[in-house]
Write a structure and sequence with these properties.
Number of strands: 6
Helix content: 25-40%
Strand content: 15-25%
Distance between the termini: 23 Å
Largest sheet: 6 strands, parallel
Radius of gyration: 15 Å
Structural class: alpha/beta
Shape: globular
């Protein structure tokens, strides 16, 4: 098993550390995805934050961000490396599968990846500090990149309670 490494500049690390100093320990979230099949429903993100009032949620925002989740502290991250600095400062990262999940593993930060039913967990997931929430129903993984009703349904089967449990672990 090989996990890549990412080496951040002191400025990238400092930017994330400044956010942590301002808000305290936090869970970093990113509900955005270029691919509809990898998006957990927006209302689930809102419910997640509501069900964890003892946690601070920071949402890194970027050009693919559709909305800021109510209750989250929005932090603009115009580049991948700035987002990595924020990941490094977080206690946990939560999002649908993406390249940032691989970066999170490279940075050694725990993560909860909401996998749904699009991609094969056995091939792309399973990092040591990663909890993957996967739909194992019929037709999963389907592997489709075009919008797919199967994937939308699979993502909606991953409950807020499952994500809360994974966060608490």
């Amino acid at each position: 098993e090989h996990i890549a490494r990412i080496y951040l500049t002191s400025a990238e690390v400092s930017r994330g550390a400044a956010v942590r100093q301002r808000v305290g320990p936090f869970v970093l979230i990113d509900p955005a995805s270029k691919h509809q099949n990898l998006r957990w429903p927006g209302e689930f993100w809102t419910a997640l934050i509501e069900q964890c009032p003892d946690l601070t949620f920071v949402q890194h925002t970027h050009r693919d961000t559709l909305t800021v989740i109510p209750g989250a502290v929005a932090i603009p991250t115009p580049s991948f490396r700035e987002a990595c600095g924020l990941v490094l400062a977080s206690d946990l990262y939560v999002r649908g599968e993406s390249g940032m999940c691989h970066a999170t593993a490279a940075l050694g930060v725990p993560q909860v990846t909401i996998w749904g039913g699009c991609m094969d967990w056995d091939v792309l997931g399973g990092y040591p500090k990663q909890v993957g929430l996967v739909d194992t129903g019929e037709g999963s993984p389907c592997g489709r990149w075009l919008p797919c009703n199967h994937c939308l349904d699979a993502m909606s089967k991953i409950t807020v309670e499952q994500v809360v449990t994974a966060i608490r672990q």
